[in-house]
Amino acid sequence: MNVGILALQGAFAEHETMLHNLGVTTTQVRLPAQLEQIDRLIIPGGESTAIGKLLETYQLLEPLKARAQAGMPVWGTCAGMILLAREITEGRREGQPALGLMDITARRNAFGRQLDSFEQALSVPMLGEEPFPAVFIRAPQIDRVGPDVEILAELEDGRIVAARQGHFLATAFHPELTRDDRFHRLFLEL
Q: Which residue from 68, 84, 118, 162 has the least number of CB within 10 angstroms?
């Protein structure tokens, strides 16, 4: 298995390290030819508008959409989750490129600014009884899920922060910034 990590902007190196620790082959994806070499793709955290524009600049947006719609598993973390969402609220810029692959509505910067970043022990029943150490940095949240979307994790106040729809996975937080590899293992099983 070769896992691609979109390496245009954001926290791609940390995902790569986590996957290498699991013994998984990775490819940093920056060009359409690299997209053809992978079996699944992680879209990392970063800045969703910048990543979307770079997807267009490097002519990756449409090939990535086509591969994903044909069944390639895709995981979006933080900004990557925003790009996966069918709808984006709170601060979407006019003409902002997005993939629109998951039937969710993502709200950008739902938890405030960089200074409002936090860590939270998160209950994720699918991953077992031990709470997951979720790291939220200028994080989005999921405001709405479609009928085919499975909610994987919510904060105590009910805000949705992780979901799955078929071969798509979305997390509002950064699992790659922890030592806990359970979300990466889950993605490898999709």
A: 118
Percent of residues, the chain, with pLDDT higher than 90: 85
| Total number of domains in the chain | 1
- Domain range for 19: 2-189
Per-residue model confidence as pLDDT tens digits over 32-54:
999 999 999 999 999 998 999 99
Q: How far apart are the first and last CA of the chain?
A: 12
Residues tagged active-site: 78, 174, 176
What values do phi and psi take at 142, rounded to 5?
A: -100, 115
Alpha helices in 29-134 (DSSP H): 32-35, 48-57, 61-69, 79-84
Alpha carbons 124 and 132: distance in angstroms, whole number: 7
Q: Find the CATH number of the domain harbouring 117.
A: 3.40.50.880
Strands (E), 8-114: 25-29, 40-43, 74-77, 85-89, 102-107
Q: Does position 95 have pLDDT exceeding 80, yes or no?
A: no
